[in-house]
Amino acid sequence: MRLSSLALAAGLSLLRVAAHDGSQQKPLGDEKKGSQPNIVFILTDDQDLHMNSLDYMPLVKKHLIDRGTQYRRHFCTTALCCPSRVSLWTGKQAHNTNVTDVNPPYGGYPKFIRQGFNNAYLPVWLQQAGYNTYYTGKLFNAHTVENYDAPHAAGWNGSDFLLDPYTYMYLNASYQRDRDAPVNYKGQHTVDVLADKAYGFLDAAAADGRPFFLGIAPVAPHSNVQTLLFDDIGDIEQAAVFSPPIPAKRHEHLFGDARVPRTPHFNPEQPSGANWVRRLPRQGPDNVAFNDHFYRQRLRALQGVDELVDGVFARLGRLGLLDSTYVFYTTDNGYHIGQHRLQPGKECGFEEDINIPLVVRGPGVPEGRAVTNLVTTHIDLAPTILDLAGAPIRADFDGEAIPLRARDLEAAVGSRHEHVTVEYWGFAIGEGKLFGDEKSRLVLNNTYKALRIISKTYNFYYSVWCNNEHELYDLTTDPYQQHNLLHPSALSESNTEPLLLDGVPLGKVVARLDALLLVLKSCRAQTCVRPWHALHPTGNVASLHDALHARFDTFYEHELPRVSYGRCELGYLLDAEGPQWDVDGLVYRHGARWDEWV
């Protein structure tokens, strides 16, 4: 049975190496026996892939894109800073960390501490594996000048954290080093301050001689935000004042003609999406002009990051560490400006928000503008780094290590999973200006569960919102996600003849996607990696293609409950989440087995 063909360059499985064949690269195991590589992890804030920000970073291109591998199908699983970062450092989906917001009670640094992760995240495990660990920049939201020592973030030999409420103030940042009191850097550009701190940690790491991990987390290109401390927040709209990012003065004149790419879904004539997104008004000329300015400011703010990357590689070269160091470059979540009529922001399930940059360079990693379309996620990064370190991979990880060597990339073509779990709770915020009749930048009913599933023959996004609206996009024929196949208007247009996805009835595909989402929205550990096994324990189904066989029609279309919500909530409250698939393969609701509940 065949679904629509996927117009991915060379398909999901293909690795393209433009200048150097992977066989010419030093394999990961070529290092001296018993040695462990160094790891530098650069994590930007809100950087887009789909608005071409990497095209404006020539030094990232020089050191990383031209000398490493791009993972073009890399996704975050929650498009919001703190939940995404906690998932990244723990290897767990947000429904398993229950850190789902940027501030208490549902998220932020206090929730990270309360959930017990201060002793169970990547730097702690790396120290146990013999690494020195260092970090500078933004760790989590609601990590503040008042709670940084209640307790200190564990797992770091050296740290210099950005702290709220100054995290997003480009010219008024406060950093807190090791056990010292916070220091304010008013008038200095935060990325320049960060760069000096990162170079200092590289020097310290080299002098010690042990393998090291260094996390570098600039705030760019996040909006400039003036905020109150999280415990002072009553009305979030009163507590945060958003404005475009502020570049360093040496960069403020750049890219005067740049504007948001005018893709088909940029400020479209017809609405798209579901729920509140579909009700957005079309943006007027003044609004579009301001958003183009916002876009240029993001590109300008990223120039400091570009210089930082150059400085890191220069320092690694002087220290003689280039050949023994892996460098990862990614961001916490993506960003949209104008797509689907959205004001600047994130928090949605569209590609702009969840499909994000990931570039890796290091020993054995194919170089020469190498590109892979294997599906990878932030949940996979902790196991990847532990694998590089030679440390045990934890059984409770919700992801699996990302293949880095050419031979491992090739071997993963037929075996790696094809899905991404996407989830979100709570609000969405427009970070630009208010225009026209807009009275609020805040939307509260932005809770949804979704999945992305990509192979050589299909490419879908499927979601269920907390008001029980549904979305389905076939990105093969609709790459900009403009035509929700499950919106009532689309269904009414096809009521005379069954809607087909290249020969497969729409309802048949939706039933399988819904069942997959039913498992993924409450999965744990290996069930998150191999969800079809939960539905078919005999192992005869490993993909959507397999599940579409006619012999499974009754099971999917009549026997399983559908994903639904009881109500919209701002956080992960199980009794609002509808049917769940538990670890024993039983479907239940409100703590009872489904067959008992019905």
From TrEMBL:
<dbReference type="GO" id="GO:0018958">
    <property type="term" value="P:phenol-containing compound metabolic process"/>
</dbReference>
<keyword id="KW-0325">Glycoprotein</keyword>
<feature type="domain" description="Sulfatase N-terminal">
    <location>
        <begin position="37"/>
        <end position="391"/>
    </location>
</feature>
<dbReference type="InterPro" id="IPR000917">
    <property type="entry name" value="Sulfatase_N"/>
</dbReference>
<dbReference type="GO" id="GO:0008449">
    <property type="term" value="F:N-acetylglucosamine-6-sulfatase activity"/>
</dbReference>
<dbReference type="Pfam" id="PF00884">
    <property type="entry name" value="Sulfatase"/>
</dbReference>
<keyword id="KW-0732">Signal</keyword>
<feature type="signal peptide">
    <location>
        <begin position="1"/>
        <end position="19"/>
    </location>
</feature>
<dbReference type="GO" id="GO:0005539">
    <property type="term" value="F:glycosaminoglycan binding"/>
</dbReference>
<dbReference type="GO" id="GO:0004065">
    <property type="term" value="F:arylsulfatase activity"/>
</dbReference>
<protein>
    <recommendedName>
        <fullName>Arylsulfatase</fullName>
        <ecNumber>3.1.6.1</ecNumber>
    </recommendedName>
</protein>
<dbReference type="InterPro" id="IPR012083">
    <property type="entry name" value="Arylsulfatase"/>
</dbReference>
<dbReference type="InterPro" id="IPR017850">
    <property type="entry name" value="Alkaline_phosphatase_core_sf"/>
</dbReference>
<dbReference type="InterPro" id="IPR024607">
    <property type="entry name" value="Sulfatase_CS"/>
</dbReference>
<comment type="similarity">
    <text>Belongs to the sulfatase family.</text>
</comment>
<feature type="modified residue" description="3-oxoalanine (Cys)">
    <location>
        <position position="81"/>
    </location>
</feature>
<keyword id="KW-0378">Hydrolase</keyword>
